[in-house]
């Protein structure tokens, strides 16, 4: 009976201490530097890029929006500091085709500012957008030699 009581008491103590930790560190207060972008961050990125390149004057398609990883030394410094002692600026890396040119854009999400906007001049093409993939899937079905084969 005494051992059951001790077990119940320890379980209760563990539960309460877990609740205290969880209430002290809420998802809004803590974010790992390598967490993927949130829906709000992606929306912010799109808003910033569209403000610079309004769709009324430009042809704009997003091909990639993701986290621009912090450098390793900064990440290790954060990892070895106490939780929340230092913050690492969240940045987004964007690949967009704007007026037939492939842009590589880096955005500071805290400052809501474009840090760099480079036009890619090398080889290759970014991944297809959803619309382009859909068109590519349907294209052979409208091509008579393909249908005849």
TrEMBL record:
InterPro entries: Cu_amine_oxidase, Cu_amine_oxidase_N-reg, Cu_amine_oxidase_N2. Contains 1 topaquinone per subunit. Pfam families: Cu_amine_oxidN2 (PF02727). Residues 1-23 form the signal peptide. Its EC number is 1.4.3.-. Its cofactor is Cu cation. Topaquinone (TPQ) is generated by copper-dependent autoxidation of a specific tyrosyl residue. Residues 32-117 form the Copper amine oxidase N2-terminal domain. Keywords: Copper, Metal-binding, Oxidoreductase, Signal, TPQ. Belongs to the copper/topaquinone oxidase family. This is Amine oxidase. It comes from Stylosanthes scabra.
